[in-house]
Each structure stands twice: as C-alpha cells, then as structure tokens.
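ok so for the tutorial part 2 we go from a plain amino acid sequence to predicted structure tokens. step 1 is just haveing the sequence, like this:
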Amino acid sequence: MLELNALFDIQNDVVPWLLECRLTPLNENGESTSLSETELQVINVEKNGSVLYTWKGKKGTTCIGIYDPHNKQNKLLYIFDREVSLISCSVNMERTLLVARCLTLLIEIHPVNNTKVLKAVDSHVRVQFLYPASDMKPFPESHLLVVSEDSCIEHIHISVVVEEGYRVMVQNPDRLPKDIVAEDFLWAQWDTQGQRLFYIVEKERNAVLMCIQFYPDRNHEMLLSFPLGFSLTATRLRLVNFGYNHFQEEEESSESLNLQVFTNHTGTMSVCYSHPVQNEQEFTYSVIFLHHGWRKTFTVSLEASECARISEPTFINIGYYIAVYMPGYFLHLINAQHPNLACHSLFLSGKDAKVKPWNHHRYILSLSDSLLDCQLGKMYEADLDPLLLMLFMRGSKLDCHQFAALHCAVLYLQSNSETEMQIIHWLCGLSVSGSFDLILEFILGTLYRKAISETNTMDKLLPYSSLLNWDGEIPGVTYGTENISQPVFREKIRNLKGFWEELNRNVESMKNLESLHNPRYNNSSLRVIKTKLFSEMNVEDQRAIKHFRNILENAKKILSKVDTRCSEQQVVPLFQEEDCQQMVLIGLMVEKLKEHLLKYLHRVGKKMIDLIANNYVVNLLECIRQIVDKIWKKYGLNTHILCLSSREKVQSAEFVVFHMMSRVLEAAERLCLPLPPGYHTIHIILGVRCLPLHTLLHYIDHGVLHPTELFVTRLFKELDHSETSERFKFSIVTRIPESVGQKIYHLWDHPVSSSCIARNYVETLLRKLCTQQKSKDFFIREQTQFESEFLPLTYLARILTEMEDQALNPFEEQENVDAKFVEEVALKQTLILLGLENN
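step 2 — the prediction. this is what the tokens look like for a chain of 839 residues:
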C-alpha cells in the first residue's frame, strides 16, 4: 500500500554526466568507465534538496559533486589529490564553503582551494551547515554544526569576504567563533526542513528530549524540554539525519536508541521509538504524540517470515500518517493527526504489509521528509498508492480495516474526483450490517477536509468522524494508551509563527478539552430545536415569526451559493422545489454553527465565521448531491424514471439506487443533517416504483419515506381513477402531514377530500364561534323534541345550522358545502370511531 516514488537516482541523474565530462577513471582506450556502487556514493542531502555525492576520479583522486533537483544539473565541487574515505560532508547555501570529514577539514572551494583543520580528532565526526530562509539574501556568515562522537555539538560561525570582486575567502580562519550547543547526549537528530536540533540527555534516570531552534537572522534558542518517561539503556551514540556514514555498522539496534522525531506544518510532533526485543514472537514500539499528550504502545505478534531474524523497524513520516515498517513482518500507518481511536490507523500484515520497491534485504535510511537507499544511491518520497489503498478497502472483511481505509482515502488523498467516485461505488455494494456508518463517515470526512484546507483553525472545532469511542480489537496487535504531561513552551513561543505556533495551539486545545466540553461541533443537538421550531411555524408570535424569517433568509443564501458553485451538468433534479422543512434545517444549522464557532474563534471576526459556517453547509449539500448524482450516473438512471404511471417498467438498478438513497437519508438523520430540497420527493418516487404497497406504507410509517407536497400533487395528476390507483392514493393521503393535506386536498375528487374540506369548514366556523362567544353576540338554541339524543352529533348540527348564514365559507370557490353535507360526514366519522360502521 505504501510506495516509494523516486526523487533521485545516482545511476540515472549523475553517471551520464560523469561519463560525458570524462570525470571517471579511463580504460586502456582512454574512454571513461562506469562506477560501481561502492565507488559512487551519496553522503548528504541539504535542506534545498541538493544531493552531495563522492566518487573515485582519475589517477587515484577523490571527487565531491552536487546535484540540484530543481534544474536537474550536476556540478563538481572539489577534488582531493588522493583517495580519502569521506564520512560526512556539507556545503553552505551559497556553495562557497565545503566541509568534509576525512580529518575534519574545512575547505574553501571557489575560486581557490584552501584547507583549514577545524578539529583533528580520530572519530566519526558529522558536519552540517545551517540553511537560512530560502527567500533571504545571501547571508554574510555561514553557520556550521560539528557533531563528534564524544557527545558534543559545536556551533561554528564562519564569516566570508569577497576579494578582487570574485574571490571568496574565510575571514580570520585561525579564530573562528564557536559555542557548544549540546553535550553529554546519546541520541541526536537534525531536522533538515525545520532547521531544528533534537537530542536526548538523561536526568534523574529519565530520558529528556531537548529541542534547539536555529534561526536565519540570529543564533539559536532552546524551545522544548520534555521528559519521555523511560530511562536510557543505550550505550552507543546514534545520529539521525546527519548524512550517511558508509563506514559505520548498519545493525546497531542492541547498542543504540532507535528513536525518531517527526514534525508536521499542522503542528503535530510525534516521537517514535522501538523497545528492546524480548523474544522472537512479538515486537513492541511506542509513539508519543506531544500535541495530544498521549503515549500509545503497540505490541505486534510476529508471524512466520522469510526474514532470518527480527530487524529494527523503520519509522517514516508521510505527513498525515507515521509508517512503522518491519520488512517481512508488518506495516502500520499510525494516524498522527487523530490518534485517539485505533480504528483510524491501518495495521497491515502478510502480503498487504509491503512497500514497493523495498525488500527486506535493503538498508534504507529515513530522513526528515524522504528516504535514502544507501546501497543503490536512490532517494525516495514515501506516499500512499491510491490504487492499492482502494483495493485493500474493497477486499477487507474487517470493519476496522474498512473504516481506517475509508478515513485514509477521504482525508489523506485529498480532493480526487476519481477516488471519490471509487469510494461511492464501493459504498453502494456494502451491506448495512457493519459496526460503522461508512456513508456518514464519508460525508463528515469530506466536509472536514474541505474546511481545514481553507483554514487550519477549524481542525479542533469540526467533526471528522461520528465515533466518540471504539474499543474493538485489531488482529495481531494489542495496544494501550497512557496520558503524559504535555510540554510547556517558553512564553516567547507565543510570538512565533509557523510550526511552533501551530504546535502550541494544539497543546492549548488539548488542555481546554480537559477543562471544558468537547469543542467539536455536534449537529445532533438540533433535533430538539428543529422539532420545536417546526411546531412554531404557524404560531403568530412576533418573535417566533422574526426568528423563522431569519432562518429562512440563511437558507436562501446557502441555496444561492449552491447554485453558483454548480458547474457540472447534474443528472438528479435536486434543488428544484421548495422544501420548507429542509430550508428550516439548513438555516438552523448555519445559525447554530455560527454560535458554536463564536465561542472559540474570538480573534477571527464575525465576517470570517459567517463565511466558514456558510461554506460548511454549502459543502454539505454539495457532498450529498454529489453522492446521489454519481450513484445515478453509475447505474445509468435519468429523470425519465421519475414517472409514477409506469411502475411495471422498474429496472434492477433502481432498487440499488433507492436503497443507497435510503442509507444516505439514514446517515443524514442520524446527525440531523439537512438534505438538498427535492431529495425526499425523488426518494419516495423511487420507493413507489420499487416497493410493493405494504412495504412502501411501512417505510412511510417508520419515517424512511416522506410524502412531500410535490409528490402527492404528482400522485393525483399522473395516476388514473382506477380502483387500484384510488386505493393507493387513499393509503398515501391518510399518511400525509396535515400542513401538506390542506394544500392539495382540493385536487382529489374523492370522499376523503370532501371529508377534509368539511373538517376545515367546521374548524373555521368554530373559530368564528369562539370569537362571537367572547363578544357575547352568539347563542345556541334549545333542543327540539324531534332531534336525535346523540349529543355530540346533535350539538354539532345545531351549531352548524345557526352559523351557516353568519360565517363566510372559505371553500365556496372549490366545493359547494352545506350544513347537511357536513352533518352526514360528521355522523359517518362518529360511527367509524365508535366501531359501528359496517365494512
């Protein structure tokens, strides 16, 4: 699932240039010869991606060259007049100074070759120039880190001057200022991109991680000191990302600490380390998420493998995930952004746990943001293979694997229409018996990805998953979570930008979680508010009317944005009718989301919050429309199927689409999410075509299908007056909301319609009666000896008789209603209620 994309290949990017320039040893015919892997080696990678390499040149010389990945050009930097074994090498950004470890020589490389011994020690010293910001002017002073195996890191300041207009010389080479930045450590890592030095010292039998930040315009500053919670058992110094020493032992797991720190621009800092091997049946490693204040420890059961013995795992930073890879055994993708639930991470073993083209015999070094194959001289960028990820997702049988793969595809692969189409196709074929609502996860993940792409400040305030907890099992893996004390940064960090600002914000957010409720927005709280608001829709209270009007205005703004954003031709005719309830829910969600964001984003401003909330709901409606539209396109449906009069021509694809729309509806209602206006109409029309009558009515009674005004209107207009159609109409009409019934009953020439008209007529008269009784202008006559003793009916008949000439009939243009008709209807319904009516 993880693949290595080549960034640099020394055989393809360097060897042709060497042969063309005749910089390799010559054969008997005077022709340049190829170099073996041991004669041409990568020795360092600088911040700007430039690759330093060395090779054996003509007549026993040793050469140093550099490859620029931006213009894909090579350049010869320096030639030793003898064969030397280079352990470490670095060049400053201006390429005026080169430092190499053979006897720790500082070499001026342009235009005159001069050498200066900085520190003559017989040890594997590493050297690394600091790089200022890429947008700065050439720095008059270069800064060099010298790391020696006596556990000391020196910071050397090298000033240069230009003589004769072009000659660059070192100023005062005999008195170069230097200071010690770290000592007495057993592990150190250079963060090339961030220009940060991490190292570990032991204090009171506890390993403490220190971090020094180097700046382009001033010296350096200690920003972080964090106890890791374990004591050091390593006896040998380990250096990470300080180039590659081809003369050191590759296997040193038993003597040095296998630990690596990964950072991300989003403000995540993860410390990964492996535990000493206790037996050959299992392996344990831990990941400390400093930005969350958690340590997660994973114990992996090792299955039989082709590998001769257990090796160290390699930790790889791929941004959203940290890959833990032990070739031949397992590949784990640990979610660094959301590490709280194990089901958000991928745990692979067997044939799925492979990284192409990596094999378990090859030694690959993990750098800050790339990998180096030290044997073949290749540099790679690790990335997820979308095709393999989708194959794994479709072939997985475990819920946790499906969930993690979906989460990875939606959030990590970013916006990819082809991937989204494949995910929707996969969701269509899934059963509904799983532990997760994957459609809801797809919707929330898509909204989260779009929101944080606009502004990172939303990553702690918007939901990325519907899961609050999960305690399931991962086959072959046991894990535990431990709370740790979060790092305390210096006050000065609050004035910094970039990574440290984001990390500090993440830490502060986690502290707020401990003292306050979960700040992530939860739309399910709208359920009670929505019900209350629906009940107030016909209330004549001025405050309720104003509130309702504001909500509808919010909804109209959202729908207008959806219309302007829509560029592709849509198959499904959504957003083509007025759906009052959905508009209320849309406006209400905008209102409540704004209120939620105002609690936590005080500095952003109201206009920005309005924009974020509006865009979030717009993206929600677009996401649902996109799901439905792609389903219709997948199964070749069009609007011609939305015909109620031809149910006998139902296609099998319609059943699939209907059930998929039902699952989308279920996902939306689970969190009370609004649906695009017109969704319920299209859904129930498909239901009419696909389902037998008793199943259709069952779906309506249980709230799966919602009879809308447009649907019932089409029902009356498109169906004929046959006995079957009339029975079908009657079954639907008896289940429609009263608010819908009052608008469409006049379209149906049927006793049920007349009954509704009579009920509305009586309601109008009785309301008039109440008004007259309050003004004492109305009286009821006494009962005569000829009237029935059935008091309710008699009372109603007397009222109607007295009021018939006094009250205006609002239905007179639609129906000819008189008191006798209303009396008959009332008697009929009374007998039905008393169970006295014959079938």
